[in-house]
Design a protein that fits this description.
Bound molecules: adenosine-5'-diphosphate, magnesium ion
Distance between the termini: 5 Å
Number of strands: 2
Strand order of the largest sheet: 1-2
Oligomer: single chain
Strand content: under 5%
CATH topology: Serine Threonine Protein Phosphatase 5, Tetratricopeptide repeat
Largest sheet: 2 strands, antiparallel
Number of domains: 1
CATH class: Mainly Alpha
CATH superfamily: DhaL domain
Length: about 210
Protein backbone atom coordinates (compact mmCIF):
# COMPACT_ATOMS: atom_id res chain seq x y z
CA UNK A 1 0.00 0.00 0.00
CA UNK A 2 1.19 3.47 -0.85
CA UNK A 3 -0.05 6.85 0.28
CA UNK A 4 0.08 9.34 -2.58
CA UNK A 5 0.98 12.99 -2.07
CA UNK A 6 -2.64 13.90 -2.79
CA UNK A 7 -3.81 11.49 -0.12
CA UNK A 8 -1.17 12.78 2.25
CA UNK A 9 -2.47 16.31 1.86
CA UNK A 10 -5.92 15.01 2.61
CA UNK A 11 -4.62 13.24 5.75
CA UNK A 12 -3.05 16.47 7.04
CA UNK A 13 -6.26 18.40 6.38
CA UNK A 14 -8.26 15.76 8.26
CA UNK A 15 -5.82 16.01 11.19
CA UNK A 16 -6.46 19.75 11.20
CA UNK A 17 -10.19 18.99 11.45
CA UNK A 18 -9.64 16.52 14.30
CA UNK A 19 -7.65 19.09 16.28
CA UNK A 20 -10.31 21.71 15.61
CA UNK A 21 -13.04 19.36 16.87
CA UNK A 22 -11.09 18.67 20.07
CA UNK A 23 -10.09 22.20 21.06
CA UNK A 24 -12.29 22.12 24.12
CA UNK A 25 -11.11 18.67 25.16
CA UNK A 26 -7.47 19.77 24.90
CA UNK A 27 -8.16 23.07 26.64
CA UNK A 28 -9.79 21.22 29.54
CA UNK A 29 -6.86 18.83 29.89
CA UNK A 30 -4.30 21.65 29.77
CA UNK A 31 -6.32 23.66 32.29
CA UNK A 32 -6.03 20.87 34.86
CA UNK A 33 -2.24 20.87 35.14
CA UNK A 34 -1.08 23.51 32.65
CA UNK A 35 -2.07 26.96 31.48
CA UNK A 36 -4.92 25.96 29.17
CA UNK A 37 -3.41 27.20 25.92
CA UNK A 38 -2.71 23.91 24.17
CA UNK A 39 -6.02 23.44 22.34
CA UNK A 40 -6.17 26.99 21.05
CA UNK A 41 -2.51 27.00 19.99
CA UNK A 42 -2.81 23.69 18.19
CA UNK A 43 -6.02 24.72 16.43
CA UNK A 44 -4.48 28.00 15.32
CA UNK A 45 -1.45 26.20 13.92
CA UNK A 46 -3.36 23.43 12.18
CA UNK A 47 -5.89 25.85 10.68
CA UNK A 48 -2.99 27.67 9.03
CA UNK A 49 -1.45 24.35 7.95
CA UNK A 50 -4.73 23.43 6.27
CA UNK A 51 -4.87 26.75 4.46
CA UNK A 52 -1.24 26.59 3.32
CA UNK A 53 -1.51 22.96 2.18
CA UNK A 54 -4.67 23.72 0.22
CA UNK A 55 -2.61 26.30 -1.65
CA UNK A 56 0.34 23.94 -2.17
CA UNK A 57 0.49 22.71 -5.76
CA UNK A 58 3.44 20.30 -5.67
CA UNK A 59 3.57 16.61 -4.90
CA UNK A 60 6.54 16.52 -2.54
CA UNK A 61 5.43 15.02 0.79
CA UNK A 62 8.63 16.15 2.47
CA UNK A 63 7.93 19.74 1.44
CA UNK A 64 4.39 19.49 2.84
CA UNK A 65 5.80 18.39 6.19
CA UNK A 66 8.45 21.11 6.19
CA UNK A 67 5.82 23.70 5.35
CA UNK A 68 3.61 22.40 8.18
CA UNK A 69 6.48 22.33 10.65
CA UNK A 70 7.46 25.91 9.80
CA UNK A 71 3.90 27.05 10.40
CA UNK A 72 3.99 25.50 13.87
CA UNK A 73 7.45 26.93 14.59
CA UNK A 74 6.47 30.42 13.49
CA UNK A 75 2.84 30.69 14.48
CA UNK A 76 2.15 28.92 17.72
CA UNK A 77 3.15 29.64 21.28
CA UNK A 78 3.79 27.22 24.10
CA UNK A 79 6.03 24.21 24.11
CA UNK A 80 4.26 22.81 21.09
CA UNK A 81 5.59 25.17 18.43
CA UNK A 82 9.20 24.00 18.65
CA UNK A 83 8.38 20.41 19.64
CA UNK A 84 5.86 19.49 16.94
CA UNK A 85 7.20 22.12 14.52
CA UNK A 86 10.80 20.97 14.73
CA UNK A 87 9.61 17.37 14.50
CA UNK A 88 7.64 17.96 11.32
CA UNK A 89 10.55 19.82 9.74
CA UNK A 90 12.88 16.95 10.62
CA UNK A 91 10.44 14.38 9.22
CA UNK A 92 10.00 16.48 6.07
CA UNK A 93 13.75 16.76 5.59
CA UNK A 94 14.08 12.98 5.88
CA UNK A 95 11.26 12.49 3.37
CA UNK A 96 12.17 15.32 0.98
CA UNK A 97 11.38 14.45 -2.62
CA UNK A 98 8.99 11.60 -1.85
CA UNK A 99 5.79 11.56 -3.87
CA UNK A 100 4.31 8.69 -1.92
CA UNK A 101 4.71 6.99 1.46
CA UNK A 102 5.06 3.24 1.79
CA UNK A 103 5.24 1.49 5.15
CA UNK A 104 8.87 2.46 5.62
CA UNK A 105 8.00 6.07 4.82
CA UNK A 106 5.48 6.07 7.65
CA UNK A 107 8.18 4.75 9.95
CA UNK A 108 10.55 7.51 8.87
CA UNK A 109 7.86 10.12 9.45
CA UNK A 110 6.96 9.15 13.01
CA UNK A 111 10.42 8.07 14.16
CA UNK A 112 11.83 11.42 12.96
CA UNK A 113 9.08 13.27 14.80
CA UNK A 114 9.71 11.30 17.99
CA UNK A 115 13.50 11.63 17.83
CA UNK A 116 13.33 15.35 17.19
CA UNK A 117 11.01 15.86 20.18
CA UNK A 118 13.27 13.77 22.41
CA UNK A 119 16.41 15.59 21.28
CA UNK A 120 14.91 19.02 21.75
CA UNK A 121 12.89 18.44 24.90
CA UNK A 122 14.98 15.80 26.61
CA UNK A 123 11.92 13.82 27.76
CA UNK A 124 11.86 10.04 28.03
CA UNK A 125 9.00 7.59 28.46
CA UNK A 126 7.59 8.04 31.96
CA UNK A 127 8.05 11.83 32.13
CA UNK A 128 4.37 12.49 31.30
CA UNK A 129 4.63 14.01 27.82
CA UNK A 130 3.77 13.29 24.20
CA UNK A 131 6.77 10.93 24.18
CA UNK A 132 4.62 8.51 26.21
CA UNK A 133 2.24 8.27 23.23
CA UNK A 134 4.71 8.47 20.36
CA UNK A 135 7.45 6.12 21.55
CA UNK A 136 5.26 3.03 22.13
CA UNK A 137 3.65 3.76 18.75
CA UNK A 138 6.97 3.92 16.89
CA UNK A 139 8.37 0.87 18.72
CA UNK A 140 5.35 -1.29 17.95
CA UNK A 141 5.08 -0.05 14.36
CA UNK A 142 8.74 -0.78 13.64
CA UNK A 143 8.31 -4.35 14.90
CA UNK A 144 5.01 -4.97 13.11
CA UNK A 145 6.09 -3.81 9.64
CA UNK A 146 8.63 -6.63 9.50
CA UNK A 147 5.77 -9.09 9.07
CA UNK A 148 2.57 -7.10 8.47
CA UNK A 149 1.18 -4.54 6.07
CA UNK A 150 0.97 -0.82 6.76
CA UNK A 151 -2.61 -0.65 7.94
CA UNK A 152 -2.43 -3.62 10.31
CA UNK A 153 0.87 -2.36 11.69
CA UNK A 154 -0.54 1.12 12.17
CA UNK A 155 -3.59 -0.28 13.93
CA UNK A 156 -1.58 -2.38 16.42
CA UNK A 157 0.73 0.55 17.05
CA UNK A 158 -2.24 2.87 17.62
CA UNK A 159 -3.41 0.61 20.45
CA UNK A 160 0.01 1.02 22.08
CA UNK A 161 -0.21 4.79 21.57
CA UNK A 162 -3.56 4.84 23.34
CA UNK A 163 -2.20 2.78 26.24
CA UNK A 164 0.75 5.15 26.42
CA UNK A 165 -1.49 8.20 26.49
CA UNK A 166 -3.63 6.66 29.24
CA UNK A 167 -0.54 5.71 31.23
CA UNK A 168 0.29 9.42 31.66
CA UNK A 169 -2.73 9.78 33.94
CA UNK A 170 -0.98 8.17 36.90
CA UNK A 171 2.39 9.76 36.25
CA UNK A 172 4.00 12.66 38.03
CA UNK A 173 5.21 15.18 35.46
CA UNK A 174 8.98 15.55 35.22
CA UNK A 175 9.27 18.06 32.36
CA UNK A 176 7.51 21.17 31.10
CA UNK A 177 5.10 23.46 32.87
CA UNK A 178 3.16 20.73 34.73
CA UNK A 179 6.37 19.49 36.43
CA UNK A 180 6.09 22.49 38.74
CA UNK A 181 3.08 20.81 40.33
CA UNK A 182 5.00 17.71 41.44
CA UNK A 183 2.54 15.22 43.03
CA UNK A 184 -0.44 17.37 42.08
CA UNK A 185 0.23 16.65 38.41
CA UNK A 186 -0.91 13.06 39.03
CA UNK A 187 -4.46 12.06 38.11
CA UNK A 188 -4.79 13.80 34.73
CA UNK A 189 -3.86 12.73 31.22
CA UNK A 190 -1.02 14.81 29.75
CA UNK A 191 -2.36 17.17 27.09
CA UNK A 192 0.57 16.65 24.69
CA UNK A 193 0.13 12.88 24.97
CA UNK A 194 -3.53 13.44 24.10
CA UNK A 195 -2.88 15.66 21.07
CA UNK A 196 -0.30 13.20 19.75
CA UNK A 197 -2.88 10.45 20.06
CA UNK A 198 -5.47 12.53 18.19
CA UNK A 199 -3.00 13.05 15.34
CA UNK A 200 -2.24 9.32 15.11
CA UNK A 201 -5.90 8.32 15.39
CA UNK A 202 -6.94 10.74 12.68
CA UNK A 203 -4.09 9.52 10.46
CA UNK A 204 -5.30 5.96 10.90
CA UNK A 205 -8.92 6.88 10.17
CA UNK A 206 -7.74 8.34 6.87
CA UNK A 207 -5.83 5.25 5.76
CA UNK A 208 -7.94 2.42 7.13
CA UNK A 209 -10.16 2.23 4.05
CA UNK A 210 -7.34 2.48 1.51
CA UNK A 211 -6.82 -0.62 -0.59
CA UNK A 212 -3.67 -2.64 -0.02
P1 LIG B 1 3.07 25.06 27.49
O1 LIG B 1 3.41 24.04 28.55
O2 LIG B 1 4.22 25.92 27.13
O3 LIG B 1 1.81 25.78 27.78
P2 LIG B 1 1.57 23.45 25.63
O4 LIG B 1 0.41 23.63 26.54
O5 LIG B 1 1.37 23.79 24.19
O6 LIG B 1 2.84 24.19 26.17
O7 LIG B 1 2.04 21.93 25.65
C1 LIG B 1 2.19 21.23 26.84
C2 LIG B 1 2.66 19.85 26.49
O8 LIG B 1 3.95 19.90 25.94
C3 LIG B 1 2.81 18.90 27.66
O9 LIG B 1 1.58 18.30 27.92
C4 LIG B 1 3.85 17.91 27.20
O10 LIG B 1 3.26 16.79 26.54
C5 LIG B 1 4.61 18.67 26.17
N1 LIG B 1 5.94 19.00 26.63
C6 LIG B 1 6.31 20.06 27.38
N2 LIG B 1 7.64 20.06 27.57
C7 LIG B 1 8.12 18.95 26.91
C8 LIG B 1 9.42 18.39 26.72
N3 LIG B 1 10.51 18.97 27.24
N4 LIG B 1 9.51 17.28 25.97
C9 LIG B 1 8.42 16.71 25.43
N5 LIG B 1 7.18 17.20 25.57
C10 LIG B 1 7.03 18.30 26.31
MG1 LIG C 1 -0.09 24.94 27.95
Amino acid sequence: MKISSKKFKDIMIKISGAIEKNVEFLTDLDSKIGDGDHGVNMAKGFRKIKKDLQGYRGDNIGQMLILSGKVLLNEIGGAMGPLYGGGFVKAGTALNGREYLDKDGIYILFSSLLNSIKELGGAEVGDKTMVDTLEPFVDKYSREIKTSEMKESFKSALTKAEEGMMSTKDMVSRVGRSSRLFERSRGHIDVGAASSYLILESFYNSIKDLKE
